[in-house]
């Protein structure tokens, strides 16, 4: 089912996400991890809402882990891709995590 423009709620900054519960946020893919063929299929990406390089003093509070279970790749999800995501937030290894998020790739306006 296509998402109509304006149908998403306003995104919440990553550092203000609840520890548990449904949330909408947005940011840029900072890193991806692809599991080897011998491991269970899982594609992991780190989303950040910081527009600059990571700062050691922020404690990772502007980073959100996205995990797609049962997939080795997700088309269009590469480092530098801007996304809007929605899903259930949980805490995994001290980092907020959303499993199998609903996502929208946000294009950039060319001039």
Record the SSE blueprint.
Elements: E1 21-34, E2 42-48, E3 63-69, E4 82-92, E5 95-99, E6 102-105
Parallel strand pairs: 3-5
Antiparallel strand pairs: 1-2, 1-4, 2-3, 4-5, 4-6
Mean pLDDT comes to 85
State Rg.
14 Å
Give the DSSP E fraction (strand runs of 2 or more residues).
35-45%
Given the helix and strand composition, which structural class is it? mainly beta
For the biggest sheet, the summary is: 5 strands, mixed, barrel
Order of helices and strands: EEEEEE
**DSSP summary, beta strand count:** 6
**Sheet with the most strands: spatial strand order:** 1-2-3-5-4
**Helix content bin:** under 10%
The number of helical elements comes to 0
Cα end-to-end separation? 30 Å
Low-confidence stretches: none
Shape: globular
Task: Describe this structure as you would to a colleague.
By secondary structure, the chain is mainly β. 0% of the residues lie in helices and 43% in strands. It is built from no helices and 6 strands. The chain has strands spanning 21-34, 42-48, 63-69, 82-92, 95-99, 102-105. Strands 1-2-3-5-4 form a 5-stranded mixed beta barrel. A hairpin with a 2-residue loop joins strand 4 and strand 5 (95-99). The model has no long low-confidence stretch (mean pLDDT 85).
